Amino acid sequence: MTKTIIRQLIAFGTLLLLVGCASMQPTITVKGNAAAEHCLAFYDDLDQVVAKHGITPSRPERITGFPYLRLTRFLASYSQQDLSDTALQHWLTHLAAADLQARSIELTSLELPVKSELSTIYGVDLTAMLENCAQTLVTVDLASPERLALLRKRAVTSSEYRLLNKVLGLYPLSSIPVKIGIHQYHDETKAVYEQPLETLPVHGQLQRFQAPTQRNNVDLSTMAHDALGIPIPTAAQLQSLFSTHAPVWEIDVTGSYDLPGKPFWDGDNKPDVDHSETLVYRYPSYTHWQGEVLLQLNYLIWFAERPPVGKFDIFSGKLDGLHWRVTLNTDSTILIYDSMHACGCYHYFFPTTALRLRPKARQLSEPPLLPQHAPQLTVGQNLVIRVSTGSHYIQRLYADTPSGQTFHWHDYRELYATPTTEGGQHSLFRLDGLVAGSTRMERWLLWPMGIPSAGAMRERGRQATAFVGHRHFDDAKLLDELFEPASVHIR
Fold first, then answer.
1. Given a cut of 50, is residue 293 above it in pLDDT?
2. 472 near 168, Cβ under 8 Å?
3. What is the per-residue pLDDT for 219?
4. How confident is the model at residue 201 (pLDDT cuts 50, 70, 90)?
């Protein structure tokens, strides 16, 4: 056993010890406040009921000792910042809102008799109870420096990388062939993008899917922002932004596995997709860039499978999700597009000419993949995304007038109530964030990279996007770490 591996084992053992010690730290209880104690009892009862009868998202992440708050990587980025009293209040309000969204999914998953029993015990509507308790506990914790200090300490998100996998898999050695394979894949992808658009192979029939027509310019510079600098769009503004920036999906269709639709659970409890209606799932997110907070628009389509090519295809399997993200600058222009598959694989960046890759990002063991710059759109044009058959790789971006079959919008949260063939509903995601039945054989080769079940589809917030190194799709400072303004002078 090499000295490096011994040091890694010692480090892992120390980490386990520290985690164990942290878990034994007593949670500071809220004493002397009857309303707060009543709320904490309610959260405890609700958690037990949901664990037994319902569905709960694995992300946003829970915060030990603060059952009314949940955490994203973006919100975690504020935990160690020096915040004003108003900004601190807004931070807790965002954490509480994240929990309320997750709780709404949990309540929806409970059958009526179960919810009625809880309502009878606490004497109020459960949604109203959650909203009141969130306000009560935010007020209580803002008045407690000890509680706030504990919250800052615990407001840390979990990594999607497993250190034990890397240690047992001899990561320093096993990552070498993976790194070589990744660089080869990058070269092959860039070669595809170097081909003229008209020479890209079409194996079936190109079919387009476009958003319902709704174009209303939204000026982000006039949008309301809170004390954290987070833009707060109204529901109408957000709807307009999603419609305005929705891409046209142009897919090379050779079989039903290339038609986007609605996931469901088949009779064998395997994931499948009903493509009788084209659906695009969406949600907003935020990121940091150059001291500002930027709004992001996320679009997700699902395919029934990635079909095998030949007799032995380690990348094929049931269900395939293609995720598209638009990051808007403060002046309402596009800053960058990026995409991935729902496994966290194939993360592509399409920056505008306003950005360039940082020199240090080019030197990473797994540098970001930039196949092309974002095309310029003129009035009346939409972004078109060419998608290959089978693998569903993005092959090109280009500008064109919109056309094609109109798709329908669905909120991402509906995936937690995925229908079954028996008429019921069940979450698309397991408690570990993975989609059951979507595993790929590549996991047996890539497990030493630290990513559980590499290639399997997973829940938002659970995507590690670098096999060599450490990177998450929703890292709050991802853009700042990888890119810089193109106007920056290089010495």
1. yes
2. no
3. 80
4. very high
For residues 145 and 62, give the distance between their C-alpha atoms in angstroms, rounded to a whole number: 21
284 burial via Cβ count (<10 Å: 0-12, 13-18, 19+): middle
Tokens of residue 25, six digits = 């730290």
Structure-block tokens of residue 133: 């308790």
**φ, ψ for residue 84, nearest 5 deg:** -70, 170
The candidate with the shortest Cα–Cα distance to 248, out of 397, 390, 135, 379, is 397
The phi-psi region of residue 241 (left if phi > 0; otherwise alpha if psi is between -120 and 50; otherwise beta) is: alpha
Residue 169, amino acid: G
For residues 303 and 252, the answer to whether their CB atoms sit within 8 Å is: no
Torsion of CA 376, 377, 378, 383, to 10 degrees: 150
Question: Could you tell me the pTM of the whole model?
Answer: 0.93
Tens digits of per-residue pLDDT, 380-429?
899 999 999 999 999 999 999 999 999 999 999 999 999 999 999 999 99
Strand ranges in 307-407 using DSSP code E only, listed in sequence order: 317-328, 334-341, 348-351, 355-357, 382-387, 394-400, 405-406
